[in-house]
Amino acid sequence: MSNSNKRLKYAKHHAETVYVGEYIDLKKVQEGIRHYVYLNRDHPLVIRVLKEQYVVLTKFGAVTFWNVSQRLRKEFLKEIIPFVKNKKTNYPYDEETKVFIGGEVEKITFDTVYLTKLEPSEIKIISYVLSQSVALERYEDEIEANLSEIGVIVENLKSTGRAMLNERGLLKQIGNVLSVKQTAVAHLSLFDKPEEVWESPGLESLYNRMNFEYELQDRFDILDEKIKYLSDISQMLMNFLAEKRNAFLETIIILLFVVDLGLWFLPPFPEVLTYIRSLF
């Protein structure tokens, strides 16, 4: 940035995004909390809580605070808790950036944004990208944890030919994988571009540049590949269980056949009992 731009006085804003739960019901938020000013009614939802202080909510569980004090944040989070699905007291996922308004040059880096103006549409786009990054981080961690657990099972199958888990343990592991997959797939569909970018070249440029800085597309593609891999492994484990059950049933059938065959050649039970008595 040139020296003349450095001397300009910028209006500074601070945006921080936190992950609060799997899903936020935006419609119920608007119905249940009426003392704030809603700047729009679609997704993501932009709320003015005080002058120059905003909160942006996404369906996929991320909340972005603009210039909001810690006290007001806590109060606001308490208010929306009834409308959050699978909430926790504290998730370790957050992003923050500084936004400077003024000057003639727009510049975007990983943690700093310079814009010529800041309107609700820009607040919406910046918050949306930060929210996507935070939500992706949550799913990245969950998928990675499942990959580690599945990796142990795969390694055991490779080295010993056994999963080293009973059927119940395997079914539980498969259930965990399918649950994470279902949650991720259901919400990753929300990671498309917001509608505004299709109508405004300036907003599309802002979204694309922030998307590039936070590597959203690359992270999404990697996550998608890991989900497909987990699906394949889950199918393999289910096939493995089915084969184990089939082998067990075949063993039972063979044993029953042998027993039945033995009974065929044995004399009637009264004769066997008489014979045993004669021995004593």
UniProtKB/TrEMBL annotation:
Record-linked Pfam families: DUF155
Keyword DNA damage among UniProt keywords: no
Looking at the record, the residues that make up the DUF155 domain are: 55-223
UniProt entry keywords in alphabetical sequence: Membrane, Transmembrane, Transmembrane helix
**Superkingdom as given in the UniProt entry:** Bacteria
Where does the chain cross the membrane?
Answer: 247-266
Please identify the protein, giving its name as recorded: DUF155 domain-containing protein
Organism for this UniProt entry: Candidatus Yanofskybacteria bacterium RIFCSPLOWO2_01_FULL_44_22
